[in-house]
């Protein structure tokens, strides 16, 4: 393969990568960056009763254990991502509120156990994700190192970088052809 073809192939890959970044940036704008966080580590799930946001004794014991684990990563700049879920026994709006309320209860319980509220990101997903009803009535807890590291989305920066690489490589190819 000639050198010109290699540069052209690299330019093509850069362009395709940039277009993928643009699509991802559009996804972030439409659905919000909190829904696209990369979860580094799953900590655990807290389960709730039907139509309830009250924490059981078992849930409180689990939260104490999870708060200790979260505290171990305090100095690493990690955020705590809470995603609340609810089953479909009620309407969409009521389930949304219940899922958010469950996540807020878990956030308050974690704060009482030493986790700073500034580190907590709350999300709720009232949509049915499994067939087991008890699995839908939960809050998932994740540690996310990328949330603290990036104040905003990096995708526009990546798009600019890949476009720059593409133009530089194209300039090199056309300069060598002269």
Automatic annotation (TrEMBL):
<protein>
    <submittedName>
        <fullName>OmpA/MotB domain protein</fullName>
    </submittedName>
</protein>
<feature type="transmembrane region" description="Helical">
    <location>
        <begin position="154"/>
        <end position="174"/>
    </location>
</feature>
<feature type="domain" description="OmpA-like">
    <location>
        <begin position="35"/>
        <end position="147"/>
    </location>
</feature>
<keyword id="KW-0472">Membrane</keyword>
<dbReference type="InterPro" id="IPR036737">
    <property type="entry name" value="OmpA-like_sf"/>
</dbReference>
<dbReference type="GO" id="GO:0016020">
    <property type="term" value="C:membrane"/>
</dbReference>
<dbReference type="Pfam" id="PF00691">
    <property type="entry name" value="OmpA"/>
</dbReference>
<dbReference type="InterPro" id="IPR006665">
    <property type="entry name" value="OmpA-like"/>
</dbReference>
<keyword id="KW-0812">Transmembrane</keyword>
<keyword id="KW-1133">Transmembrane helix</keyword>
């Amino acid at each position: 393969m000639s050198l010109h073809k290699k540069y052209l192939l690299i330019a093509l890959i850069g362009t395709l990568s940039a277009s993928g970044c643009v699509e991802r940036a559009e996804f972030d704008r439409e659905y919000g960056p909190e829904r696209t966080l990369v979860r580094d580590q799953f900590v655990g799930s807290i389960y709730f009763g039907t139509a309830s946001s009250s924490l059981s004794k078992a849930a409180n014991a689990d939260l104490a254990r999870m708060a200790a684990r979260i505290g171990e990563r305090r100095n690493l700049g990690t955020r705590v991502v809470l995603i609340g879920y609810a089953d479909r026994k009620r309407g969409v709006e009521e389930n949304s509120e219940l899922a958010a309320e469950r996540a807020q209860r878990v956030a308050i319980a974690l704060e009482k156990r030493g986790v700073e509220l500034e580190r907590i990101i709350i999300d709720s997903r009232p949509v049915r994700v499994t067939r087991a009803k008890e699995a839908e009535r939960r809050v998932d807890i994740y540690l996310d190192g990328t949330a603290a590291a990036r104040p905003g989305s990096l995708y526009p920066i990546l798009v600019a970088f890949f476009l720059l690489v593409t133009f530089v490589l194209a300039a090199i190819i056309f300069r060598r052809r002269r």
